[in-house]
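Supplementary Methods S3. Input chains for the assembly prediction are listed below.
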Amino acid sequence: MNDILIIGTVALDTIETPFGKVEKTLGGSATYASFAASFFSNPALISVVGDDFPKNYIDLLKKRNVDIDGLKITGKTFHWDGFYEYDMNEAKTRKTELNSLEQFKVEMPERYKNTKYVFLANIDPEQQLETLRQMNKPDFAVLDTMNFWITSKRDSLMEVIKKVDVLLLNDGEARQLFKTASLVKAANEALRTGPKAVIIKKGEHGALLFTKNKHFSAPSYPLENIKDPTGCGDCFGGAFIGYLAKTKDLSEPNFRKAIIYGSVVASHNAEDFGLNRLKHLTMNDIEKRYKEFQDIREF
Amino acid sequence: MNDILIIGTVALDTIETPFGKVEKTLGGSATYASFAASFFSNPALISVVGDDFPKNYIDLLKKRNVDIDGLKITGKTFHWDGFYEYDMNEAKTRKTELNSLEQFKVEMPERYKNTKYVFLANIDPEQQLETLRQMNKPDFAVLDTMNFWITSKRDSLMEVIKKVDVLLLNDGEARQLFKTASLVKAANEALRTGPKAVIIKKGEHGALLFTKNKHFSAPSYPLENIKDPTGCGDCFGGAFIGYLAKTKDLSEPNFRKAIIYGSVVASHNAEDFGLNRLKHLTMNDIEKRYKEFQDIREF
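Predicted C-alpha cells for the full assembly:
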C-alpha cells in the first residue's frame, strides 16, 4: 500500500560537471524524490515520459518499489541538458526540451486519491494545484519548486504555497520569491502565507527549518568530492517526507530528524552522477551517516 | 595579568549599509577582537593609532579592561571607508588610508613577551611573523587574515600559517588561498601545512572546524536584522581565543564550545553599527544566546 504520492518530472538528463559527463541518464524531480523516499516508505509516482524512455529505467524504479501506475507514456521524454561550473552551486541550463511534459495534465489513478502524504516535487505549479484538487484532502503536503516557476508562474505558485503544510526551497529562491536578502524575513513571510513550516535548503551549507516559534539549523556534511549535485534537493524532499510517512509523527522535533535524513540521502546522492550512488545505497549507509551528522553538530 | 596578546589594526571606520551610515567610528581587527575577548579574559593589544585618535575611544578600550600599553600613537589613524550592498555578505572598500599603519613595526613591551595565548588578528603577515619572533614561544597562536594579504603577501602569509596552532579564514579566502572550490580540500591542505585546526567562517551560514580526524559544523544564528557585519570575523576570533584562555583547555571538544562563543559574540555584533552592540553586551546575554545555539542544532 502506498503511503506517499509524488508528482514531479521524470527526465532524461545530460549532465556535465568538472568531474565528467553523462548523457540521457535517468533524472527528474519525481525520480530522485521517489528513490529517496523509497528507503523509508512506499511512494507512488505521477508523471509522464515518452515512448523513447528506456525499459531499464522503468525497471530501476520498480526495483525500488516505486508504484508507477501514475506514469503516463506519450510522445518524447522531457530532456534537460545542463552543466555545473567550478563551484557547483548552481546548475546552468544548455537546453530544455519539454516534449511530452508540455501537454502533461495530471490524471489521478483512483486508488491514489486517498494517499495521506503528498510531495509536490518541482513541476509546473498548475499541475501541483491540480494534484491537490483531484485528491481527497491529504493529511500532509510538502511543496518544492524552482526559480523558473517563481519567475514565470508566481501567482499559481503562491496559490499552492497557501495550501501546503511545508514549503521547501533553496536560499536563492527564498530571497527571490519574498524579495528580501534576509532568509529569516523570507521564511517569516512564507509562514504568514499558510505553511506550518518552511525549510530553506542551502546546498553545502546545510538546511534551515523555520516554524512559528522555533528554529533549527541542520549541519552541512563535509563532502570532499561532490561529483554531481543534480537531484540533491529532490532527494532531500523525498527522504524528508519518506521519513515522516514512516514514523507518522508530524511534530517539530520529528521534522528535525526528517531534515537530517533528507541531508543524509542528498549528501550521498552528490557523490556520483545521476542515480549511480542511490542505486547502491543501503539503509545501513543511511543510518551510519545519520550518526555522523550527530557527531558533527555536537558541542 | 594579561592572558592573551592581540595584534591587529585599530581604525576609524566609515561604514554604510542599507540600514544607515556611521563616520569615523572605532573599528579595526584588534579592537573588535579585544572587545570580544574581554568578556572571557584579559587581552593586551599591540597596534598603532594617530594623534587624531579620539580620547573617548581610548576610554572605551580601557573600560573593557583591554591593556593598551602596546598601542603606539604616531601620525594619523588608519581610516577604512566601505559599504555593504543588499546581501551584506561582502564589504566593498571605497577608500583605505593606511596612514600610521604604513610604517608600523611591532615593538613588544617587555611584559607582553611571556603571554601564553596570541591572536594574530588581520594585519600585514610580516608584522604577524614579527610578533611571534619577539615573543617567548607562546603556548597557543591563532591566525586570522584577509583576501588582501592572500593576494599581496602570499609567501609571508604561508610562513605564518606554518607557525600557528589554529588558522581562521572565511570560505572565500579558503578557496582563494588553496585554489580549490572544495572547502574540505582547502581545509585538509591547510592542515598539511602545520596548524592543528582550521576554522572556516561562513558568515550567515555558520562556521566549520576541521582537525585531523574530526569535523564540526557550527549552526548559523537566525538574525532577522543584520545592521552592520563589520568586525564579526574579528569578534569571532577574539571570543574564540578568549574562551580558550579562560578555560585553559585546548581539546577539540572545547574548540567546539569556543566556536559557539565566537558565533554568539559575532551574531550580537552584527545587530548594530560599529561597537554599539558590544558596548552594552553582558555575559548574561552571551550565555542566553549560547543556550539558543544548543537548541537550534538539536535533533
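The mean pLDDT of chain A is 96. Chain A is about 40% helix and 25% strand.
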